[in-house]
Amino acid sequence: MNINVCKVVVFTSILFPLCSVAQELSPRSYWPAPVGTRVATVGYSHNSGDIIPDRSLPITGVDSTIDSMHIGYRHTMNLWDRTANLTVEVPYTNGSTVGSRDGDPILEQEYSGLGDLAVTLSVNILGAPAMTRQEFREIRRNLPNILGASLKVVAPTGQYDSDRLINLGANRWATKAEVGYITVLHPKWLFEMSLGAWFFEDNDNFLGVIKEQNPVAAVQGHLIHRFRPGFWASLDVNYYEGGRSTVDGRRLNNVQRDSKIGATLVFPFASIHAIKLGYSNGSITDSDEDFNTLLIAYQQLF
Predict the structure, then answer these.
(1) CATH number, domain at 21?
(2) Which residues contact 64 (CB under 8 A, 6 or more apart)?
(3) Backbone phi, then psi, for 56, in 5-degree steps?
């Protein structure tokens, strides 16, 4: 494998998810890369249906149209002789939502601005030591099973107005802890699974009162086909449950219980560039959520 092919493999294997909701579909999250790899990303997503920036809000009958631009940066490094990635993401969102709150008349709200900043540290615990490009080429020829873990922190940096019901920022800290596993089914086929949980700090200024939220558990599965170095596609599915809210001491009947199914296609070009296309749809659950997400992202290795 020459250096250009190695760049393509590294680059497209670390395309991270760009989605306006917490319960993302993110195939190949724990795929390794050589130490020193740096990737910049810009992406666009279009979301429609029963979806809002903060799914814990006490709103029913939701119909939204949300468009988001995302900017991200990822750096691969050596952490205790293991492959580790540090990822920073920030979205800019423009959207509108129609719904109702506690049976009140129809609520209509438009919003635009920056969302919350997210930082993720992921580490491959087994199967992917810190590598040079040459060592990465060697391990890719005989890819081992990989076990990884990650911690994602979302900071309350986004636009927030305590007098508005729907905001782009959540006015609280949130953390997701996750473990992931990749196994090789065939030289061209991989299966990846991850299990994680979101934990939320209280929002102490939600319309003048305190809003609390229980943790959300989430599981993902991805069946991945590798066509050639850097060119791959996946079928993706997840399930998440939890997140019941308490507002001013009153527990709401708003447990999140849903799943998404989707597909992802990534293809490289000109050695250091790649395009990612994705589609997902809310699947059949007892929460009656129905939403669609389309995304396109461009990345450059440097």
Answers:
(1) 2.40.160.40
(2) 47, 48, 49, 50, 51, 52, 95, 96, 97, 98, 291
(3) -85, 0
Q: What is the value of pTM for the model shown? A: 0.91
Helix residue spans in the chain (DSSP H) = 3-12, 133-141
Alpha helical stretches, state H, 60-158: 133-141
Q: Interhelix angle for 133-141 vs 3-12, to 10°?
A: 80
Give the 3-state secondary structure percentages of the chain, helix then strand then coil, rounded to 5: 5, 60, 35
Domain count of the chain?
A: 1
Q: Using DSSP, state whether 134 is helix, strand or coil.
A: helix
Domain that holds residue 202: 3-301
Q: Name the stretches of the chain with pLDDT < 70.
A: 1-23, 103-105, 283-289
5: Cβ contacts below 8 Å, ≥ 6 apart: 229, 230
d(CA 232, CA 215): 33
pLDDT, one tens digit per residue, over 148-167 is: 999 999 999 999 999 999 99
Asked if residue 187 lies in contact with residue 157, where contact means CB atoms within 8 angstroms, the answer is: no
- The side-by-side arrangement of strands in the sheet containing 209-213 is 203-206, 209-213, 245-247, 250-251
